[in-house]
Structure formats: structure tokens, C-alpha cells
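Extended Data, panel c. Modelled sequence:
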Amino acid sequence: MSQFTSTNASDVTFKRELQPEPSGSDPARCPNCGSFALYVDPVRGERVCDNCGFVVDESLVDQGPDWTTFEGDDRIRAGPPPSVMAPDKGLGSMVGNGLRDAKGNPIDARSVAALNRLRRVSQWTRYDRTERALAPGLAQLSSLSSRLGLAPAFRERAAIILRKAIEAGLSRGRSMDAIVAAVVYLAAKQLGAPRGLHELSEATGVTVHRISLTAKVVSRELGVFSRASRAEDFVPRFASQLGLDPRAGERALGLVAQVKDSKVLEANSPVGIAAGALYLASEELGVPLTQAQIARLTGVSEVTIRKHYRLLKESLAEKEKPLEAA
């Protein structure tokens, strides 16, 4: 007999150690009937045998994500999403004004006094230095945006620029009203729907020169650049606010497009060009519109409207001369 065919007592012990445990301890099999047909009930959190109905495990922990598929990309674990319109982006905490405990029972006077002290301390320490300076600016920004009828996208872009300006120390020695007006002016230009300096001046009480100067400083220091305003950016909004016929607005846009490359109008204000184009279009189509109405809305004088009205007519006449000669 070969030496490899003999079996020693140590080999028997080793084989016994390698043998699996009884089938009842196999997690993939039902301990009741031995079936492998196990399924997980996600509603009850149980693992059940499909053959005999025996509940193998219960109170299972859901290992999946803690959001639903219809929430899109805003996957948050708790609470509202962060907002740039709040000084702390909505991530801070505060002591509420409730006077009842967790069970709904009223608390005694000693606890009320302690909660009031904690509430005051929480208000003092809730914001850091930058957030404390940002709080009144954001309040003014919300008020100005409401008066101008700005969309949430404009408010958020302006809030981001305002936060950067305060973090860079640009608010020292400058009026917060001027900074808020400047960031709204820059945000509106970045998003392609600029607001005129006269509109912001009337809404905030800050002079046009101060808003323009502050906007230049913020743009230079923070690197906030945007394309120059064009007359066609103002025409649709002015036409809508004046309640003009759609044909008048389209004609005014056509007039602006025709004189876009004219060197005569290069150095002129886009708001003035838009006002002159609206007046010229209303005159051509017979729409009743006065210079005073346009002046009240756009913030430019009637003299400026007449000036751009004449410039537009001259530019259009010059473009028509080569066609007549041909």
C-alpha cells in the first residue's frame, strides 16, 4: 500500500473541521424547509421564504439612497436646500420661540427665562463678521428686486456678487445702497436683461454717477465682466411696460437692427436709442404714444428722445440713399 492511501487520526480530525455546519445555519436557505427561494419585502423590512412563508429576518436596514427618484439632482438628506439669499446660506440653527416642551406641556417661568437668554446668545453668535455685514445687504437686495420685479435667478446672481464684494472688503467706506444697486446692475447685465442706471437710481435714491462708479469698482476688483448693454435688450421690456401693440415693438427692434452698424450711434446710450426707436416705430405705425410717456418709463429726458429720434431717421435715410442710386 502506498503511503498516500493510509489515513491517520489527525487527517480525520482535519476533515471534520472542514465540514460545513448543519444546513439550518446557511443564510441563503430557509431554516424551516431548506428552500433557497427567499425574497425581501421592502415595505415591511423582512426576508421571507417564498415556499413556506417563514420570516427569516425582520427589521432589515435599507441600504439604498435616502432620496426618491423624482427629486432630480437636489439630493439632500434633511432640511431645505442651501440658499445664497440667507447670510449663512440657510445652514445655521436658531432657538425657536415655542413655550412648550417636547410633550406639549407648558414650561415653567425659570425655563422660559433660560430659553430667552439662550435665544439672545444664539442671535449674537449665529453669524460671523462677514455674514453679519451681509445680512442688511441681502435684505436691501430682496426689497430692490421686488420693486424692480426681478426673477429669482437675478436675485441669486446679485447675492453671489454681493457676498464676494463684502468678503473682499469693498463695503468699507461705501454705502450699502450703492453696492446693492451696483451688484443688481452687474447681475442683470450678465444674464442678458440689463436694467438702466436711471431705473436703479429712482428705486434706490442713489445717484447715477455713484452707482456707475461703484459698479466699475466691483467689476474691476472681483473680475465680474459682462457684455455691453445693447438697445435691443431694452426695447421688448419698454414696449411691454408701455402696453404697445406687438407690431410697434417688432418695428422698433427692426429699426435698431438696421442701424446697429451705424457709427453715428456708437457713442450713444442704448436706453436712449431704444426710446427713440420706440417713438419712431409708433409714429410710423400710427400708434398713439407721447415722448412724455416714454421719458417717464425710461428715465431719459424728452430732449434725449428727440435727439435719438433724429439720429435714427438720419441713419436710415443714409442707408436708403445707395439703394436709390443703384
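The first strand starts at residue 38 and ends at 41. This feature is highlighted in the accompanying rendering.
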